[in-house]
Amino acid sequence: MAVKELKPQHGFTLIEIIAGIVVVGIITLVVTAGMGPLFKQSVNPWQQVRAAELGQSLINEILSRRFDENGSSAVGEARCGETGGPSCTTIPNDCSNTSYREEASRENFDDVDDYHCLELSGNQVADTLANDLTDDYRQFRLQVRVAVEQPDRLKRIEVTVITPQGQNIDFSAFRGNW
C-alpha cells in the first residue's frame, strides 16, 4: 500500500476569525461614533430654513391685520389715538392674562394685539386657512409677543420659532398705525 502525502491546509483558525470580527467591530464603532455629530449638523441648516419659512409666514399673517381693535381700516376714518378717534387698546406686558382678546381662536384674530402671547405647538401649527402643518413642521413651536413701541404709533411684533433641536430663531417686525 502506498502512503498518501498530506497536502497543507489553507484557511483561518477560530482565533483568527474572532480577532478579525473584533477588529472590524471596533473600526465600525469608531467610524459611526465620529459621524453622529455630522448627521446632527447636516439637519441644522434644514431646520433653520423651515423655521424661517414658518416665522416669516406668521409675521406676514400678523402684519396683514389691523393695528388695533379700536382702529379703523377704512380710508378717511380716524385711527385709534388720533384726534377725534377712539383710544387704542392697551395690552399687558406679561402673558398671565389674555382677557384683552376679543376673539377666542386664531382664525378670528383681526388685529395685531390678538396675537400677543400666542403659543403654538403640535397640530396648532397651521396656516391662515387653518390647514394643519404638523407633517411639515413636526415638533416646531411658535411664540408671539407684541409690545407697544410708541403709544398709538408703533407696535413691535416678535415671533420666536423653536426648532425640534431646541434652537430659538427670532423674527421681529413693526406695525404702524397709518
UniProtKB/TrEMBL annotation:
Pfam families assigned to the protein according to its UniProt record, in alphabetical order: N_methyl (PF07963)
Keywords, sorted A to Z: Membrane, Transmembrane, Transmembrane helix
Transmembrane segment boundaries: 12-39
Keyword Membrane tagged: yes
InterPro entries: N_methyl_site
Listed NCBIfam families: IV_pilin_GFxxxE
Record-given protein name: Pilin protein
Biological source species: Idiomarina baltica OS145
Lineage: Bacteria, Pseudomonadati, Pseudomonadota, Gammaproteobacteria, Alteromonadales
